[in-house]
Amino acid sequence: MLTVPDRRADPRIDRAAVRDIIPITLAVAPLGFVVGVTIPALGVPRGVGLAAAPLLYSGSTQLTFLTLAASGASLLALLGTLLLVNARLIVYSAAMAPLFSEQPAWFRLLTPTFVVDQTYALVIDRVDLHEPARFRRYWLTIGAVLGTGWAGAIACGVLLGPVVPDVVPIELTAPALFIGLVVPKLRDRRSVGAALLAAATAAAGHGALGPAAIPVAMTVAITALALADRRREPRSEAPS
Amino acid sequence: VTLVLALAAATLITWAARATFIALVPVDLLPQWLPAALATATPAVLAALTTASLLSLRASHPGSLTVLLPLLTAAVLARLGGNVAVVVLGALVAGTGLRLLGW
Q1: Tens digit of pLDDT for each residue in A153-180?
Q2: Fewest CB within a 10 Å sphere: which of A4, A57, A191, B79?
Q3: Best to test chain A binding among B2, B21, B73 (most A CBs inside 10 Å)
Q4: Residue B17 and residue A211: Cβ atoms within 8 Å?
């Protein structure tokens, strides 16, 4: 007897992922628009600026690249700065490694491109993504939707940037987006304490370290969390 | 050609940062306590990013209520459980309104 595969049980596009990523895509669109406006303003060829959207897949990285490339910075200075700007992504890769450990090689090689602040925040606390096929569908869906929206917003910025009135404070987009992501995560004393420690460290180091203050702040807070966990762990009983 | 080369190098270094412990270096090399701490570090990570973006904004708009009030609006909306798009839209609407009022 033939059985008809239940497409609803194994959809290629994860509907929950679409529901989760659409609000975030809408929220980052103004930031993408700003990046798009910046491309011709800096004198960077539009083709290179637009190609950077799917290749770099990150607003901060793309803005850094465009700014330094336009200012004629050396390749070494460009790569060193990008390494600092992206240092937090190394932290994310360590945190997300368990989700990728049982995935096929193509997936582990190609899809880390989708690791950004927003996708990391979406998946890291989820308990329903440990099944490899489920995570694969979810990750590919959020990556594709966010990437398409991001590239589209940048293209709109390139084309429509000159007609947006100055009265719209587009520069508020990035901080408002991060506020929208962090506030719901502050659920208990542990999360509030870690967030305050990271914020204070980032603020203290911002002047001297610039973008490097971000990974330093993350490292300080994560170390403090780990030390707190180790102190809280019950000691094993000594043999009598 | 130089710009295209720079973009290729930037792509490679950005990918390498993302793939470090996913495809390049076994995460087992890290001490056992670290992945557990990382898994619960999201609020700290996001707080560091929020602070950096706020400080960058403060440099260009020192002490401006047209920045502070929209971001407070964003925080309130986020606390009330608004989704991220609503939070950002709320901040943009508040900021636009304040500017139209001449603040």
Answers
A1: 999 989 987 787 778 887 888 788 889 8
A2: A4
A3: B21
A4: no
Question: Residue B44: left if φ>0, alpha if ψ -120 to 50, beta else—which one?
Answer: alpha
Q: Are A198 and B3 inside 8 Å of each other by CB?
A: no
Which residue in A69, A93, A175 is closest to B20 by CB distance?
A93
Inter-chain CB proximity B51 and A223 less than 8 Å: no
| Predicted local confidence at residue A51, as pLDDT | 94
Residue B10: count of CB within 10 angstroms of its CB = 25
Q: What contacts A106, CB < 8 A, 6 or more positions away?
A: none
Query: What residues of chain B, 41 to 70, have a C-beta less than 8 Å from chain A?
Result: 41-55, 57, 60-61, 66-67, 70
pLDDT tens for B62-96 read 667 888 999 999 999 999 987 777 888 899 899 99
Q: For residues A162 and A40, give the distance between their C-alpha atoms in angstroms, rounded to a whole number.
A: 10
| Chain A residues 10-49 with CB within 8 Å of chain B | 22-24, 26-27, 30, 44-45, 48
Calpha distance A56→A28 (Å, rounded): 15
The CA distances from residue B82 to A17, A175, A180, B93, in Å, are 18, 16, 8, 15
* Of B6, B83, B69, B51, nearest in space to A214 by CA: B51
Cα A103 to its chain centre, rounded Å, is 20
Q: Which amino acid is residue A26, in one-letter code? A: L
Instruction: Give A108-148 pLDDT, tens digit per residue.
Output: 999 999 999 899 999 987 888 889 999 999 999 999 999 99
Asked if residue A177 lies in contact with residue A54, where contact means CB atoms within 8 angstroms, the answer is no
**Using a CB-CB distance cutoff of 8 angstroms, which residues of chain B are in contact with residue A147?**
none
Burial of B49 (C-beta count, 10 Å sphere; 0-12/13-18/19+): buried
- Residue that is written with structure tokens 């793939």 in the block: B19
Q: Which residues of B touch A87 (CB under 8 A)?
A: 17
